[in-house]
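Hello K.,

You asked for the raw outputs rather than the summary table, so here they are, unedited. I folded two proteins back to back in the same session to keep the settings identical. This is the first:
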Amino acid sequence: MIENGFITPIQRMDSIGTLKRNENVEQSGNSLFSDIFNNAVKDVKDTQTNLEQQQYLLATGQIDDAHTVPIAASEAQMAVDMLVQLRNKALESYNELMRISL
């Protein structure tokens, strides 16, 4: 994202172990899994909103540096790619679990 004319570095995703845990063990496993996907969806929404704002500023001539639009587009694309990869890995894991014979 671009804030105050400066490009902020890409934030590293927290690992599962460092995410906030609930006191209830049964709920914490579900919340950790859902937190990862909720954060990924939120990142996609945030980067898309930023891209739309940068495109609007460029279209109305309110932006001084046109290179911010392709940067915002790349960030939005990377966020979508990350979400798709998370989904694919979750589906692979689910399918693998379903193949286990008990």
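The second followed immediately with the same parameters:
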Amino acid sequence: MLLSKARGKAVVDLTTAETIGAVTGCTVAPSPAHIVGLRLKTRGRGHHMLHWEDVRSFGPDAVSVEEPDRVRDEKDLEAGDQAHAVHNPIGKAVLTETGLEKGTVMDVEFDEQSGRIAHLVTADEQIPGEDLVGVGSYAVVVTAPQ
């Protein structure tokens, strides 16, 4: 699934069937490349984060959770938390470990069951998820071509 297709998808509490919010983005981590958290827009102010391990299912119409109190305000996350907004790859430059520019991340292709990243998508290419080295405040770093 592409993250662009997941944006706007409702996040629903399984116990009450209430909509908690909607997916607006994600945060990622390497080794292996996977989604760490989903960024959400809720009824309250600001953005909120749902750690991937708290996602019960990622269906065609909605994302479901069993414990809605696990949704946290992004500003309450510490910088070292991999779900922190700084690890959002969308819109960031892609650089190889040697400094070669490879474009800008436009989308993320991922497995909605496991959260594993298949590809980082730029305007010119699809970079395999296993090439992801890290995501910082400015750029996404990937392994250099061999």
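The longest strand covers residues 19-29.

Happy to rerun anything if the numbers look odd on your end.

Regards,
P.
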